[in-house]
Design a protein that fits this description.
This protein is α/β, with parallel strands linked by helices and 143 residues long. It has 3 domains: 1-42 and 84-100, no CATH class; 44-82, no CATH class; 103-143, no CATH class. The chain has 2 helices and 8 strands. The strands form 3 sheets. Strands 1-2-6 form a 3-stranded mixed sheet, covered by helices on one side. Pfam families: LplA-B_cat (PF21948). This is lipoyl(octanoyl) transferase.
């Protein structure tokens, strides 16, 4: 099974979201299309998923000269920050083919494992936190 990788540089969040939605629609129309992975970074942006509460945005979103966007999006989760220098990977995969399972939680655990193993190659210890999605990294301030 192959995957087409697109290295896109810095892309505004809304533009990347639109690309993802278009790719998903194309996949539904033609299941034979290859899997795609968008690799990019965003200008400073905070996204709010369907479950997001403005109580969790702990800064003044109306401050003059703010250099970030605040965008509500149709995804799960809370508030997420993306910004320059942060690699963001958006996989567009057909989970009914190949080694995949059509199961969101299984998929999330697989992504977490890839992140943990990749961090390990750089001698960084990542770990799961029970009950949460994602990978936690503890930073030491002792040199």
């Amino acid at each position: 099974m192959s995957c087409v990788i697109h290295r896109l540089g810095r892309v505004p969040y809304r533009q990347a979201w639109d690309w993802q939605q278009r790719l998903i629609k194309e996949r539904f129309r033609d299941a034979s299309l290859k899997n795609v992975c968008l690799m990019l970074e965003h200008p400073r942006v905070y996204t709010l998923g369907r479950g997001a509460s403005m109580d969790n945005v702990r800064f003044d979103t109306t401050a003059p000269n703010s250099d970030f966007e605040l965008i509500k999006v149709d995804r799960g989760g809370e508030v997420t920050y993306h910004g320059p220098g942060q690699l963001v990977v958006y996989p567009i995969l057909n989970l009914t083919q190949g080694p995949f399972k059509k199961d969101l939680h299984w998929y999330l655990r697989q992504v977490e494992e890839v992140v943990i193993q990749t961090l390990g190659h750089f001698d960084i210890q990542g770990e799961r936190v029970e009950g949460l999605t994602g990978v936690d990294i503890s930073f030491s301030t002792n040199g």
